[in-house]
Amino acid sequence: MTQNDDHGTLPTHADQLLMRLDTLNRHGVLGRAEHMQHMDYRKRASQLADHLRAALVLSGAGHYASALVVVRAALEHHLMDRLILLSRSYVETYGGIKKEGVEAEYARLAKLQATSRPDFARWWWDDSGMNVVIRGLHSDKSKKGRGTIISPYYFRIDDFDPFVGPKKHVAKLAAPFWERAHREDWANESAAAWRRYFMYDKIRKALDVNRLLPGMGVHIDVHYGFLSGFAHPSKRGYEAIYGRNCPDRMGSFDHYASELIFLYAITIAAAEVEIYGRMTRRPPRLGLAGWEDVEADVREARLASSYFWFLGDGPTMLDRIDTVHTPPGRTKPRWGRPPTDPATLPPARVRYYADPLKRLVSLHHGFQEISTGLYFQSPFERQDGRR
Asked: What are the residue ranges spanned by the domains of the chain?
C-alpha cells in the first residue's frame, strides 16, 4: 500500500495548495510598489509550506506520530501568522491587582486613555490578571485607529531569540567579545517576550481580541491539545496511532493516520492562503494578478476536505447525532429516540468533537441505531477492522 491508498483527490489538493504557498510572489502586479512586510509575509507562507510538506514526507514513510509533531508546529506557525498579517491590537496582561482593587485600576486606565494613552482600547480583569487591549501601530499620529495599521506582532516576533539561552547559564557559556551584562539583558528580554506574547494562551487571547477565530476557538484548542499528545512523550499518543497490542502496527501503513495528515495539510494551507488574500485588501494594499485561480484551488480543496470541520466548513451528520446523544448541562443521558431531530440542528448548536483521529475513523463506518432509528451513512465506507 502507499500513502495515496483510497485518499481520492486529497493528495492532489495538498500538493496544489503547498505549491500556491510557495509561489505567492507570482501574483504581484508588475509596476506596483510593494512593502517590506509583504515580502516577509510571503516568506512565512513558504516556511509554513515547508513544515507541511515535511509532515507529508514523514507520513509517506509511515512515521505518523512524528508527522503530527510537525503538524503542531505548522498549526502554531499559522496561528501566529494570523496575528502578524491581520491583527490590529495586542493584549498586555499583568498581575498584582486584587479583586478589591479592580475598580481603582479601571479608573487609572480610563484616565490614561483620556490623556497620554489614547491607544488603550478596552480592559478587563479575570483570573489571568488585568488585561489591556492596545491598538497597533498606525500611520496617523492620533493612534485612534485611522490610516494604515501594521500589526504589532510583525515587529514583536523579532523580540524573541530562542537561541540566547536562559540568564542563569550566561556565566557558563562562551560568548567572545560580548559583555556579560548585555547577554543577561538580552536573555531576560527574550524570555519576557515569549511569556508576554508567544505562549499558546497569549496567542489565543490575542486572536480572540482581534476576532481572528470567529466561532473556532474551541476547535483550535481541541486540535492543539490533540497534536500536543504527539509533541510530548505521551504513551497514549503512540497507542492512538499504532495500537496497544504487542507487537504494534508501527512501520505499517495506516489509512486513517495518513488521511488525517493530508487533511491537516490541506486545511492549514488553505487557511494560510485565505489570510494572505485578506491581508492584501487592507492598507497598505497589495495588488494581485490571477488570484481568482488561487481562490478556485482553495474552494475545491475545502470542498474535498469539508468533512474534517476544522478552520472552516461545518459539521457532518455524525456530529449532529453525537450532539443529540450528549446530555445538556449536568443531566443524565437519556435513552431512546432523542427529542431533537439531528438534521434540524443549527450548525451553531452542534457540539465539536474531542478526538480528531477517533472521529475520522468513525466517519468511515456507517451505522443504524436500533433503539433510536437514527442512522449515519458514511460517504467513504471502509471494511477494515479499526474502529
From this structure: 10-87+211-308, 89-193, 317-376
